[in-house]
């Protein structure tokens, strides 16, 4: 606390609390139109329109997952083929050395595994998780983000004092029930 | 065919002129039916084979729609609330398909090898004769058809009389699964009576639902909201993968065991052109729709889904041919009567469901305009 008062000019952002998801979406859309780009939203449950309102058009995770699964599938198939047909040719049950049905099965299974692992790890990286500290944790009301309140966090690192004050009143105009400063 | 008749009629015979006054659908139906009857006289066995192929190809669609309606009745969800019209209109054709299967009962001896004299059958088929025999087979078929007609009548009743989900949906779905399973054991699997696969019934159930989802989306996608399109496309993708899993399981089990009686089913289907029909149908029915159904944004677009559905339906057509025809020893007439049987049954089904339902199925575009005006 004493740190925050002594360093009053340094703020991470403004945290606005909204009553429902619709108000939050409207506020995000309006602020984005007005040129605020560094917005973060928090809600107790997934809100479908949120990504679109925030302008999150991230495709890299799906693309990376697809590429990883295809690469693992091809690699696995090659590995099985190489070991069964080239390196140690061994006839099993009178089947051809290069028998695609079981090979495809193993390639498919490992492709699914790699897709799941890539998507999970990519999600963690993309969300910068696990994250033990976030400036918003300093605000007591933020606990309600996992209960009944919707939050909009606006980064004000580059704004002047007056701009921050106008943003504060803007948030109130847009229906924020409470606006608090978030220390870094 | 129609153009030829129009040409003939202009040359003036009164009979043809009378034809011309019929609506095009009835005209097509009459001509196709006449050609089918001609086929019955000229090439009885080939016509029966063509009829059975056309029947499973088309009747699996309303069968799949029944499952969708009952599943939705039990689980609810916006996807079904907004798309039930198309499934219901498709289900309405079931009684016609029930009637259309009856003529085949006259030709069981032509269609099914197990109808041959007991002594000429291989051992493995002789042991199945307690199940595969004419009276029992006919009784079972009539039972399936009666159940399906009953379900279709129940499902096409006007929605006003059904404020809550009827209690019979859950047992209905169980009965549906059992009848579809045993129907395809009887009418498809026993075409090659030495072949046996546990998974066959599940595979057919999945294919019924996959194909009707493709057809329903093709018909009605423009009239649905983007989020509903996404839901239906995801359902389609899920059932499609389920089908692929089942079909591949059957392949790998039969392939691993490599028993002469079972593997011959696949050998028949990888001979000559069938190998390529099989590959092409896998590509069109599974691989391309799978890839096209991956991107989420595209699944909200009607044009994209309609294209995907059209590709999948062509794949479905090929797949059902691949599934049924290689079981038969057939004649060159198949090239003629195969398409004729399909046209006959398709037009008959459209004629059967009546003007209102038919127009509702064909005229989904007008609903789209309404939707766009409304919002």
Automatic annotation (TrEMBL), chain A:
Highest taxon listed in the record's lineage: Bacteria
Residues passing through the membrane, by range: 60-80, 100-124
Keywords for the protein's UniProt record, in alphabetical order: Membrane, Transmembrane, Transmembrane helix
InterPro entries xref list: ActD (IPR021776)
Protein's UniProt keywords contain Secreted: no
Cited Pfam families: ActD (PF11821)
Matching PANTHER family: LIPOPROTEIN-RELATED, QUINOL:CYTOCHROME C OXIDOREDUCTASE MEMBRANE PROTEIN
Name of the protein this chain belongs to: DUF3341 domain-containing protein
Organism: Litchfieldella anticariensis (strain DSM 16096 / CECT 5854 / CIP 108499 / LMG 22089 / FP35) (Halomonas anticariensis)
């Amino acid at each position: 606390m004493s740190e925050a008062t002594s360093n009053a000019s340094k703020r991470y952002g403004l945290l606005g609390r909204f009553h429902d998801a619709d108000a939050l979406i409207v506020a995000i859309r309006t602020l984005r139109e007005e040129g605020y780009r560094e917005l973060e939203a928090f809600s107790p449950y997934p809100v479908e329109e949120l990504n679109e309102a925030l302008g999150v058009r991230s495709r890299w995770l799906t693309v990376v997952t697809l590429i990883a699964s295809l690469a693992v599938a091809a690699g696995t198939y090659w590995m099985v083929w190489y070991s069964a047909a080239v390196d140690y040719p061994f006839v099993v049950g009178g089947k051809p050395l290069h028998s695609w049905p079981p090979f495809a099965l193993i390639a498919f299974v490992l492709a699914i595994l790699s897709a799941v692992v890539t998507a999970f790890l990519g999600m963690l990286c993309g969300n910068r998780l696990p994250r033990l500290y976030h400036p918003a944790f300093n605000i007591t009301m933020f606990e309600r983000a996992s209960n009944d309140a919707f939050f909009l966090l606006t980064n004000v690192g580059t704004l002047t004092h007056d701009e921050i004050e106008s943003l504060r009143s803007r948030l109130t105009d847009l229906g924020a029930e409470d606006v608090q400063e978030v220390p870094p | 065919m129609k153009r030829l008749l129009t040409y003939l009629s202009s040359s003036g015979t009164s009979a043809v002129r009378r034809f011309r006054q019929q609506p095009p659908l009835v005209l097509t139906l009459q001509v196709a039916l006449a050609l089918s009857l001609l086929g019955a006289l000229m090439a009885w066995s080939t016509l029966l084979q063509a009829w059975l192929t056309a029947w499973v190809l088309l009747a699996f669609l309303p069968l799949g729609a029944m499952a969708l309606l009952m599943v939705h009745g039990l689980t609810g969800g916006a996807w079904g609330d907004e798309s039930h019209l198309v499934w219901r209109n498709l289900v309405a054709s079931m009684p016609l398909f029930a009637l259309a299967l009856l003529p085949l009962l006259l030709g069981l001896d032509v269609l099914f090898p197990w109808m041959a004299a007991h002594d000429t059958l291989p051992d493995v088929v002789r042991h199945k004769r307690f199940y595969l025999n004419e009276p029992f087979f006919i009784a079972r078929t009539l039972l399936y058809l009666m159940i399906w007609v009953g379900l279709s009548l129940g499902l096409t009743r006007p929605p006003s009389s059904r404020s809550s989900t009827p209690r019979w949906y859950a047992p209905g779905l169980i009965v549906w699964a059992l009848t579809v399973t045993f129907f395809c054991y009887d009418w498809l699997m026993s075409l090659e009576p030495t072949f046996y696969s546990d998974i066959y019934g599940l595979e057919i159930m999945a294919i019924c639902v996959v194909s009707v989802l493709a057809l329903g989306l093709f018909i009605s996608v423009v009239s649905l909201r983007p989020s509903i399109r996404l839901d239906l496309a995801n359902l389609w993708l899920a059932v499609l993968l389920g089908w692929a899993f089942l079909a591949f399981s059957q392949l790998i089990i039969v392939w691993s065991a490599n028993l002469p009686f079972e593997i011959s089913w696949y050998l028949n289907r990888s001979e000559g052109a069938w190998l390529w029909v099989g590959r092409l149908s896998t590509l069109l029915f599974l691989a391309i729709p799978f890839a096209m159904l991956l991107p989420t944004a595209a699944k909200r677009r009607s044009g994209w889904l309609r294209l995907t559905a059209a590709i999948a339906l062509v794949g479905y057509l090929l797949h059902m041919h691949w599934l049924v025809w290689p079981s038969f020893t057939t004649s060159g007439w198949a090239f003629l009567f195969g398409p004729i049987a399909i046209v006959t049954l398709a037009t008959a089904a459209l004629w059967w469901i009546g003007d209102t339902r038919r127009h509702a199925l064909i005229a989904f575009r007008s609903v789209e305009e309404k939707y766009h005006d409304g919002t």
